[in-house]
Amino acid sequence: MTFTHFPRPQFVRNDWQTLDGTWRFAFDDDNKGLQERWYKEHSFPLTIEVPFAYQTERSGINDPSFHDVVWYERTFNVPTEWDERVILHFNAVDYETAVYVNDQLVGEHIGGQTPFSFDVTDVLTGGEERVTVRVFDPSTDETIPRGKQFWEEAPDSIWYTRTTGIWQSVWLEHVPNASLKRVRMTPDLDRGEIRLAYDVSPGAVGLTLETEISFDGEAVSLERSQLVSTNGKRAINVMGPHIFHTNFHHDGRTWTPENPNLFDVVFRLRDGERVIDEVTSYFGMRKIHTEGGMFYLNNKPYYQKLVLDQGYWRESLLTPPSDDALKRDIELAKEMGFNGCRKHQKVEHPRFLYWADKLGYLVWGESAASAFYTEDAAARLTKEWVDIIERDYNHPSIVAWVPLNESWGIQLVRSDKMQQHHSQAMYHLIHSLDGTRPVISNDGWELTVTDICAIHNYNHGQDDETAKYDVYKDELATKESLLASQPARRRIYANGFSHQGEPILLTEFGGIGYKIGGDAGWGYTSVTDGDAFVKDYARIMDAVYASRALHGYCYTQLTDVEQEINGLLTYDREPKVPLETIRHINDQWHHDIR
Phi/psi at 467 (nearest 5 deg)? Predict the structure, then answer.
């Protein structure tokens, strides 16, 4: 199977070619491939289906054991009409990658979650081309941002099977010598403007940049300006003169989960009337901010009903099995009454964010964490986040960033000044790259400076543990009780930090274990049939909705994952109880947001 959609949905060109599919493959357990120059000539004994990792069923190999060094190879042909620059793209490879084309090293990359690319034009032969990829993913290095990938062979507890090597699409793109390199699109809802910041190649200086914006098939704006440098900025009004009316946020052109309106935009570089480069994209007009202890969407208080989404599939682990699978996860969550998700310990495929934008689905963007804190771990996480913001900034569905979770990689943050500075540094780094979204400094507990007070609490107890449930309900009831709680024997704020009026959300809770079919495993509590599951879900949600201090939640979790059977859906995305039953419980929330 290959992904047939353009792998970069917010910056689309027509001339591209997928390299997903069958590659030759080899394990290099003795790490001799470089010395023996496998990138020049080698007989690779296996085949693998890219972009699926060798640990997965969909790869055709399905080997969960440790292999720290792996090699890939395939041939390809470049269309003869591609007469300018040819770019080789990798959407994600875990973890250290070296890429060779026709025996020549074209580039290296470190990082497992974000895209990278190399201009390979000058090493192409004009005939059959060969690309070889070496990947090093050291299984014993726990300073690498791994998220839920387990460092031992068999998955256990909250840890899952590892992903090594190519796990998102590989593709070629034809790019003109004079080209648009990137556009950052920032909605300014209060002014009714979309603010554009663009970069172009040196060869584009002197050309005309045309920006054509439409909404629902009707023209909104057409602007042309001559480029005098390789970068520039402009603001374009897309909401009309009525925006300054106090009710302008009701305009049918804003983006919300209920009405995910999107503007289409086409960027063209022109030399006179001749189009040199053309890129299509889209944006949503929406505003996120926090004020007075509340989360606001488009200047109105908005209660977030999120579900924890780990983004794993039985047959393909971290790699989505298809574009439809990404879309379907969002549709299932919305059918249950959730308006968004927290993508947990994973930078999800760009097509997921495309569907979140199109279908109307809030996303908290998160990164995989390292297991321990060292200077190397801090540097690696920092690099990942620079790349994450670069990739995903333009998606209207993303409404928050989560750089750290439950003190993973910063186990001593409660009192260790160095780790506290790291937490604060990540908060300020992300704000220095993106001033439009809130940042949660350490989701769960031991927060430092943060825009949302995000608390995890699984202490609801079994159905017959009434005393435990009463304590749980009391802890959620008020701001004071929430901030005084220690649900994992950890304080909500690290030493020297305290609540500064930010919204309080319960961002992990629930996790009811319910076994369907042959999958055995665990949950934070457990039930044995569907009626008991519904009753327990309602009991937990009653405690959440009774709180006058919570301004949203994130239930654990959307699906079962390997040995975790605490999903609302099975690992194969089958509902454990009717979707409308969960929706009815989720829709019980009626009290006013204060």
Answer: -65, -40
